[in-house]
Amino acid sequence: MATITTWFTLGLLGELLGTALLAYGYRLVPEATRKRYLLLVAIPGIAIFAYLLLVLGIGAIDGGGHTVYVVRYVDWLLTTPINVLYLGLLANANREAIGKLVGLQALTIVFGFAGAVASGALAYALFALGAAAFAGVVYLLYYDVADAAVASLSDVEASLYRTLRNFVVVLWSVYPVVWLLGAAGVGLMDVETASLVIVYLDVVTKVGFGIIALNAWLTIDSVTTADGSSVAAD
Ligand code: RET
User: Where are its TM segments located (predicted)?
Assistant: First the structure.
């Protein structure tokens, strides 16, 4: 029978393959966007370590009657701010907007973790704070940062911004639902099912985000190379 370790092993393989694929793409994207592209490789790259620890059975603690996977939160604390940082940089948003975006996303994860180890009403209060911080992230991505994208980017690049932004908002919104249904919340979803869903989402959100960007840069590069104009720099 498949156990939780099976899901973690699949997650590890997914993140390994994804990182290798995205690393290969580094030499294919336009030179001016390469530095920023490294962020996309780092996102699944960091998760390799998190999944390695999970497979080895390291990084889980008891959160008052249920298991809390600390490494998972550490992974998210590092990678989700990097992910929104990439969106902010892509949109040429100002420092203030990028700072808020990264800070609020980090707070989302910190509050979610605190809620997972707390119990009773406090757990839900902390969850609500995390949800409020995440609402701030979504707001910025749809308004301030989106406005910056429209004002500074070509149509194809602004369209890439919107695709990546929608991908993030839709898929990331499943995480708080799993938190609520899982052991940290009402407990309708057992730990194994929640882990399966999260492993699947982790690989799709991290690797999928990078592949969409890679694919878009390859297209943008071939189009602009063909007509002789250049792509916006870093
Ligand atoms: C928590 C609980 C508190 C409220 C909210 C949450 C959102 C978590 C998110 C996680 C995204 C993780 C990703 C991982 C990729 O590997 C912390 C569950 C809103 C958005 C993208």
Answer: 6-25, 37-61, 73-91, 98-118, 124-143, 164-188, 194-218
Ligand 1 proximal residues by C-beta, below 6 Å: 47, 76, 79-80, 108-109, 111-112, 127, 130-131, 134, 172, 175-176, 179, 202, 205-206
pLDDT at position 230: 47
Is residue 233's pLDDT more than 60? no
The 10s digit of each residue's pLDDT in 66-115 is 999 999 999 999 999 999 999 999 999 999 999 999 999 999 999 999 99
- Name the percent of the chain in helix, strand, coil, to the closest 5: 80, 5, 20
Beta carbons within 10 angstroms of residue 19's beta carbon: 22
Q: Give me the mean pLDDT over the 206-229 stretch.
A: 84
Q: Among 51, 134, 168, which residue has the most ligand 1 atoms within 8 Å of its CB, making it the best to mutate?
A: 134
